[in-house]
Amino acid sequence: MAKKVKAGGGPAGSQKSFRKLLYQQKTLCLMALVPVVMVIIFKYLPMYGILIAFKNYKASKGVWGSDWLDPLLKNFYTFFKNVNCKQIIWNTFRVGALSLLFTFPAPIIFAVLLNELKGNLYKRAVQTISYIPHFISVVVVCSMLNGFGSMAGLFNNVREFLGMARVDMNNGSKYFLLMYIGSAVWQGVGWGSILYLSALSNLDTSLYDVANIDGANRWQKIKNIVWPTILPTTTVLLIMNVGNVLNSDYTKVLLMQNATNKSELEVIGTFVYQKGIVEGKFSYSTAVNLFVSIICFALVFGANMTTRKINPENSLW
């Protein structure tokens, strides 16, 4: 006796169900269409340009018309043979690692502190004010740092008030990391807290009532209620930020460089800018940037694999 086939079964049924789902979600699909197209146009289509890292690129011949290098990895060999290669990579890693160490936990701490505030009006005011530095141009921020770090600047006024001698903080690289990371924390702490505050908005407030009955103090509430709520968001953002360790804000570094510290503050971003934009060595600069992209991908992949072993539910894939 022949078995009856359920309606909607098989490939044809699956396609019909998929089309039905698309129709039901047509508004969301239309909303997502524009950003998806923009990502494809500006992120994926230009990726063919990495071919010039392996070519003797000539603008007159274009990407496809330019000759392949012999050997194919000539630009990579040139970079690794550069006498300053190790110093440039170390500078980039040091700036990126220290920035991650201080800028990543700052929004988490800020979000937790905001969440502990009781007055909604004061809480919203502080939250809104904390967003403002994010919208200040990096050029303006660097101008402020150069002014504040001068002999007659604000930073030296504070040093003098504390009984310390005035120094030119823009001279040399001694105070570079302090100003670079400090300004990054100032600009990103409020804006970076948005995602954590969004996660905390889903917090079940009845858990606080149970904790109060059990006699938990504020630290125990944060540790056992607040932290588990934002842990998935924190893990995902940490994985993504690990991949940016070698992608320091080269614009800020470039604007903070001067004749006294340029050789000590050279990072991969400023090196690529110098070789690619200033000197016109597009193939060479593309190869260096491709090397950075490969390392960043490896860091993201490694961080994700580590997360999967510890807690698979919080990994990216």
Notes on the protein architecture:
The protein has 317 residues and is an all-alpha fold. It contains 15 helices and two strands. It has a two-stranded antiparallel ribbon. Helix 10 crosses helix 12. The two termini are 45 Å apart.
Strand order of the largest sheet: 1-2
* Percent range of helical residues: 55-70%
Distance between the termini: 45 Å
Q: Report the C-alpha radius of gyration, rounded.
A: 26 Å
Q: Could you spell the SSE succession in H and E letters?
A: HHEHEHHHHHHHHHHHH
Largest sheet: number of strands, sense, barrel closure: 2 strands, antiparallel
- Whole-number average pLDDT? 88
What is the count of β-strands? 2
> What global shape is seen?
globular
| Unreliable stretches covering 5 or more consecutive residues | 1-7
Count of DSSP H/I helices: 15
Structural class: mainly alpha
The proportion of residues in beta strands is under 5%
SSE layout and pairing:
Elements: H1 10-24, H2 26-44, E1 55-56, H3 62-65, E2 67-68, H4 74-81, H5 85-103, H6 105-116, H7 120-131, H8 138-148, H9 154-161, H10 176-200, H11 206-213, H12 218-242, H13 250-256, H14 268-278, H15 282-310
Antiparallel strand pairs: 1-2
Helix pairs in contact: 4-15, 5-10, 6-10, 7-10, 8-13, 10-12, 12-15, 14-15
Summary keywords:
317 residues, mainly alpha, two-stranded antiparallel sheet, 2 strands, 67% helix, 1% strand, globular, disordered N terminus
Summarize the structure.
It is built from 15 helices and two strands. It has helices at 10-24, 26-44, 62-65, 74-81, 85-103, 105-116, 120-131, 138-148, 154-161, 176-200, 206-213, 218-242, 250-256, 268-278, 282-310; strands at residues 55-56, 67-68.
